[in-house]
Every structure is written in C-alpha cells, then in structure tokens.
Design brief:
Helix 16 packs antiparallel against helix 17. The protein is an all-alpha fold and 608 residues long. It has 23 helices and no strands. This is DUF2339 domain-containing protein. InterPro entries: DUF2339_TM (IPR019286).
Length: 608
C-alpha cells in the first residue's frame, strides 16, 4: 500500500508539471496555487495528507477511481515564439518575350499571309488562264485550304504562345475562302450574283465574329484588307461585282467596329470601298456605253456609307473622328459619277445624296432624342457635306446661263432659314452660296465689262442677278448681326458687303438702262443714274443716322465713294452734256441734303 501511494503521488506531480509546461507554452496565465491532490486510497500511517481546495475536491469526486482530475481549460493564446517557416520551393517566373522576337513574329506572319494569298490568287486566276486544273478543283481547293487554315488557327490559339500565328492563320484562311467565293461568282458563274454576294457576306461575318470573340483587331483587319486588295486581281476590272464585294466587306465590318471601336477595321473596310467606287466611276466613263448596274453600286456605297457613319458616330461618341472621315469620303463616289449619266439623272443623284446628308444634319440638330447621340462636330460636317452636294445638284440641274440666279436665290432662302432657326451654320451656307452666285454673275449675267463700257449686261437676267446680289449683300450681314456673329458698330468688316451692294445696285441700273437703249447714250445715262442713286442713298443714311452712329458713318462713307466716282470716273468717261448733268444734279442734291441735315441736327440739340 505504501508503494502504491508513492506511485500515485509521483503521477500527480508529473500531471501538475505537464500542466505548468503546457500553460507556459500557451502563454502567460493567471498564477495558481499548487495544491497536492488527495489520494484515492487511505494512506498508511506516517504519510502526510495534502490539503485540497473545495474546487479541487469537487473535481476529484467527479473523476473515476484512481484517476487525477484534468487541468483547468486554458484560453487559446498566440504562441510566444512564431513558428519556423517551412521551406517553400520558389516558383519559376515565365520567360519574357523580347520586343525583337515579337517584331520578328509579326513580320513572318504578315509575309506568310501575303505570300499565301498570292498563291491562292494564282490558283484561281493563273491556273484558269493556263488550264491546269478544272474550275471546280481550283475553287474547291482554295476553299478547302482556307477552311484548313481557319481550323489550324483555332487549334493554335489555344496555346498562349501562339496567338500571333493564330491571328495570321485566321486572316489568311477567311481571305482564301472569300476569294474563292469571289472567283466562283465573277469568273465561273457558279453562283448567281445575289447569292454570291450573300455568301461572301456570311464568310466575312464569320471571320469578323471569330476576331470579335478573340478580341483581336489584327485578324479582322487582315481578313478585310486581304480580301479588298486581292479581289480586284480576280475580277480583273472595277465593275459592279467588285464594288458589291467591297461593300459586303464594309457591311460585315460595321457591327464589330461599333462593338469594339476598332479604327483600323473601319479604315480597312471603308477606304477600299470608296476607292473602288471612284475607280469604277472612271472606268465607266471610258466605256462606250455606261453601265447602270455600276452606277447603282456606286450610289449604294455612298448612301450606305452615310448611314454607317451616322450609326458609328451615335454608337461610339468618343470615336467620332473615324465617323467624320467616313462621312466626308462616302458621298464622293456618287457625286463624281455625274458624267456617267444624263444631266437630269445626275442632278437627281446629287440631290438624293444632299437630301440624305441634310437629313442627318437636321436630325442631329433639331431632334432632342438624337441631339444627345450625334456629336456636334459630326452634325456640322454632315451639314457642310450636304451643302456641297446641294451645290452640285444645283449646277447640274440648272442651265449654266442661270447658275448665278439659282445660287443667289438659294443664298437668300438659307439666310431666311438661318434667321428663323437661329443657326449660324445655315448662315455660313448662305454666305457660301452667295459668294458662289456673285462670282458666277460677274462672268455671265452682270460682268464688270458692262460697267466699263467694254461689254453688255444680259438684259432681264442681268437685272434679276443685280437685285439678288444687292439683296444678299443686305440680308446676310443683317442676319449675322441679329445672331451676334457680326458687330453692328462700323468697321473694316463692313467694307466687303458694302462693295457688293454697290456693285449689285450699279449692275441693276445699268442693265435696266441698256434694256431701254443699248448704245453709248444708254451707257452714259446709266452712269449718271448710278452716281445719283449712290448720292441719294448716302443722304438717306445720313438723315436716318442723326441718332444712329453706324448709319451716319455708312452715309459718310457712301458720300465719299460717290464723290470719288464723280471725279475719277465720270469726269473722264462722260461726254460734255452728260458730265454737266451729273455734276449739277449731284451738287444740288448734296446742298439740299446739307440744309436738311443741319435742321435735323438743330432740332435734335433743342430736344436734348
């Protein structure tokens, strides 16, 4: 029994020692009084009994017979010393590719694409000329090669390191398939033209969809540009079929360009289309007879280009530079195709393009729903391009003898429209049409030679042109003042409309007089009336300018101009009696005006 008690005591002490070590390893804990545990069995006489606390006695009572109580639970603590880090094997960093290696890859990809596409063209064209293979084998071989290249591109694209090669393979493959469709339609007639164009659209859309899925612009640009460059080698002439296939490429590229905003794709699709249409215009001019189908294809290029430009500008507001370039270039083929058709049809063609452009301008300018979509610069360019198309429609429709009258009438209408709509852009168009009409009129309707006695005015057309010139010279500056684009105060900028007004009034008077008497007497009478009319207009301005400074200054300037004409031109040109009449009438009018003006000034001072 004594041996059992000693062993039990030793076990209790070991338990306490383990609890102390565990508490020290777990962290600092509240200090506890070490109390020896009570023995489970009665001790023999002479062995001291350790004292126990009440809590220890309760824990001892709950333990099985002969087993020491478990140490009190300790709260989890952070270890006093951090654990030693385990050795980790360093990950290998991926090997970087240098810029030179990427450049080399791109050069090889571009070179491979170009050489392969030339091989496809030779297969489709040169083999046909030499009769090496059956047409079915040529077209089928080109299509099969293209499909194989596309499948290889999809397989290579799965590897991160082969993206450049995948892009080159995809562009080459889709271009080969598209060229096979072009050859099957234009060279061999396997497909009807509408079906061939539709199939070409599907092939181009598939290639661009793959580029869109890969989010890569290079295969899209390569496929479109490769097809656009190689297609003329197959069709061999810029006819309606070539323009149609180029237009199909532009249509297929538009959704992807709008979605991704790829400028390179837009240029690759739009520029060949416009250039092809322009070349088709020139080609159609040299033909003995004009091809109406080519004309329709050219018109479709222009109208669709305007629509696509507007859609691009609305969908990609931050990329309106590309849209503006497309808007400017698209109408050119239709406008330059005027010599291919009769004058009436050419005028209708230009009028249709002008109406479409002006419709885009009006929608973006006056409809609130679209004003926030179309950028202001795009809208302004659409209006300017529409004005140019309207100018061409005017000079195409109208006979050259009435160009000045038509242009000046359009200038007046535009000036009135600018006043009603409060639009400075429309006023700029009115100014441009007015300047064009004035320059044309000085050559035909009211030439300068008619005022110098070296030529004759055109009778009634001259009178009408002179009146329109004077009206434009008055209305355009007046609207500019109302819109705030021109200051009311007198300045050097008013000299130009003043000179135009004097020219228009003088031409009108001379044309009227020459209608009555077309000889030397009529010429002299016309100049006398011109001088007197200028003096009268100056006096009117002075009388109205008693309170208005700008009218008074205008009157004084006009008086100076009238006197300069009287002494420098009339004195040397007019004969004896005509000279006397001119000076006497001008002097008497000036005297009467001076007396009247003095009375008005005195009355103004008395009222003040």
């Amino acid at each position: 029994m004594l041996l059992a008690g000693e062993l039990n005591a030793i076990g209790q002490r070991l338990t306490e020692l383990g609890a102390v070590l565990q508490s020290r390893a777990a962290g600092p804990a509240p200090r506890q009084t070490r109390v020896p545990q009570q023995q489970a069995m009665p001790q023999p006489p002479g062995v001291p009994q350790p004292a126990m606390l009440p809590q220890q006695q309760e824990a001892w009572a709950q333990q099985p017979y002969g087993m020491p109580p478990a140490p009190p639970p300790q709260a989890p603590q952070d270890p006093p010393y951090p654990a030693m880090p385990q050795p980790v094997q360093a990950a290998r960093s991926p090997r970087r590719v240098s810029a030179g290696q990427l450049t080399t890859s791109r050069v090889l990809a571009v070179a491979g694409t170009a050489v392969t596409l030339l091989g496809v063209v030779f297969l489709l064209v040169l083999a046909a000329q030499q009769g090496w293979l059956l047409p079915q084998l040529r077209v089928g071989g080109g299509a099969a090669l293209g499909a194989t290249l596309v499948a290889s591109a999809v397989w290579v694209h799965r590897k991160q390191a082969g993206r450049i090669g995948a892009y080159a393979l995809a562009a080459t493959g889709f271009t080969a398939v598209h060229l096979a469709v072009v050859a099957a339609t234009s060279l061999y007639g396997y497909f009807p033209k509408p079906a061939g164009l539709g199939l070409g659209l599907l092939v181009a859309a598939a290639g661009l969809a793959l580029a869109d899925r890969w989010r890569a612009q290079s295969p899209a640009v390569g496929a479109v540009l490769g097809s656009a460059v190689c297609a003329p080698m197959i069709t061999a002439r810029p006819d309606a079929m070539l323009v149609g296939f180029l237009l199909v490429l532009q249509i297929a590229a538009t959704p992807v360009q709008i979605r991704r905003g790829w400028r390179g794709l837009t240029l690759a699709a739009a520029v060949p289309c416009v250039l092809g249409a322009l070349v088709a215009d020139v080609w159609n001019l040299v033909l003995p007879r004009h091809d109406g189908t080519t004309l329709l294809a050219v018109l479709a290029v222009s109208l669709l280009g305007v629509v696509l430009a507007a859609v691009t500008a609305g969908a990609r507001r931050g990329d309106d530079v590309t849209a503006v370039g497309l808007l400017v270039a698209s109408p050119a083929p239709a406008l330059l195709s005027a010599p291919m058709v009769e004058r009436v049809h050419a005028g209708l063609l230009a009028a249709l393009v002008a109406a479409m452009l002006l419709a885009v301008w009006a929608v973006g300018r006056f409809l609130p729903a679209f004003r926030s979509l179309l950028p202001g610069r795009f809208t302004a360019v659409a209006g300017g391009a529409g004005a140019v198309a309207a100018l061409q429609a005017t000079v195409t429709f109208v006979d050259p003898s009435a160009w000045a009258t038509a242009l000046l009438c359009e200038a007046l209408l535009l000036a009135l429209g600018a006043f009603q709509l409060r639009s400075s852009g429309i006023l700029l168009g009115a100014l441009c049409f007015g300047v064009a009409g004035f320059l044309v009129s000085t050559v035909h309707e009211v030439p300068i030679a008619a005022l110098l006695g070296l030529g004759r005015a055109q009778g009634v057309p001259g009178v009408l042109a002179g009146l329109l010139i004077a009206a434009v010279a008055v209305l355009v500056p007046a609207v500019a003042v109302r819109l705030g684009a021109l200051s009311r105060e007198p300045g050097g900028v008013w000299a130009l409309p003043g000179v135009v007004l004097l020219y228009g009034s003088a031409s009108t008077i001379m044309a009227l007089v020459l209608i009555v008497r077309d000889d030397r007497t009529g010429f002299l009478t016309g100049h006398i009336l011109i001088t007197l009319s200028w003096v009268g207009a100056a006096i009117y301005l002075l009388l109205r300018g008693v309170r208005l400074t700008h009218l008074r200054v205008a009157g004084m300037v006009l008086i100076a101009v009238a006197l300069a004409k009287l002494f420098l031109f009339d004195l040397a040109t007019l004969d004896g009696f005509a000279r006397v009449v001119a000076f006497l009438c001008a002097g008497l009018v000036l005297l009467a005006a001076g007396v009247r003006y003095a009375r008005l000034v005195a009355a103004e001072q008395a009222d003040g």
